[in-house]
Amino acid sequence: MSLPVGENIYAVPRQTSLIDYDTYKLIMTATGIPYKSIETCSMDLRNIDGMMKADERVILIEKARHYFSTHLRQVLSLGVKIKSVDHTNHSVTVNGEKFDYMIDATWGHFSPIQIETFFEPTLLLYFEAEEGLPAVTFVDGPLYSIYPTEEKTIYTLSSVPHTPLGRYRSIDEARSVRDNADKSLIEMKLDLMTQQALENVPNFRDQYKFLGPQLSIKTKPVGNSDDRSCYVGKSGRIFTVMSGKIDTIFFATERILSMIEADHGDVPRDVPSSLLTTIRAKATEIGISVR
Ligand SMILES: Cc1cc2nc3c(=O)[nH]c(=O)nc-3n(C[C@H](O)[C@H](O)[C@H](O)COP(=O)(O)OP(=O)(O)OC[C@H]3O[C@@H](n4cnc5c(N)ncnc54)[C@H](O)[C@@H]3O)c2cc1C
């Protein structure tokens, strides 16, 4: 459900990066992620201190949608609005149907997350260009990225300063900003993001033809650390997941399974343990009064 990106570049611009290429290389080496420094790539880039190639994959979203909706069709209900959730010590009843547990993976859109978060409406731009152009991420700091999608001739342009459309404590405010993004806002952002791309990709206007916007909302933890970790909260039989990045699904799965295991390790107060039953039986047998 993913494909390798043929040419995946991390480029450090000379003036606009917060760090120089040697420092970036040190950080990459420390992570243990394999990379190769390169002198040139198949795109004409300007004002670059240095660049590297690293393996990365692009997710085939439509294929994944099709795969999971086919394989899970017996247990999957799509497009169902959650109207009621009733919660007891033993079960969760969702829209009148009883379950052992509920996992809310809406990133705080439905039930609140147990850490302090804010909502950030976002705007990505889609462009059409020839097939096989590289993915280029300009690092590090308030920079941008040109990235292929599962459609061979469609690319996204995202920008650290221009993609966010604000920060909101309430989801309703964030939704309203996302839903009211109009032509003038998109044209203004297109201009800003194109200007930014032209700093390093002088042929950007000729190579990439604007197709349209993608509007969405990110949920992020409050703080300056740019934290993208995965958080799993639990309240009784309801889990809330804030997944960070897509690969953290594996972490969330482990956390949820271990929390469920811990639940089952707990001996409910109204059910005597086998040890307690044995002790009571023995006490009764020898005539000791027990509680
Ligand atoms: C601009 C942008 C760029 C990103 N880039 C990357 C990236 O490069 N790499 C990466 O790994 N991640 C990236 N992300 C994060 C990415 O969104 C997640 O990794 C991925 O979508 C997580 O999938 P998910 O299923 O956890 O959440 P989502 O895809 O957000 O799914 C949440 C679901 O909950 C549903 N929902 C919401 N409210 C309710 C409700 N009340 N009742 C029922 N359902 C509800 C929504 O309809 C949605 O389908 C990016 C996000 C944005 C916005």
From TrEMBL:
The protein, known as: Uncharacterized protein
Organism annotation: Methylobacterium goesingense
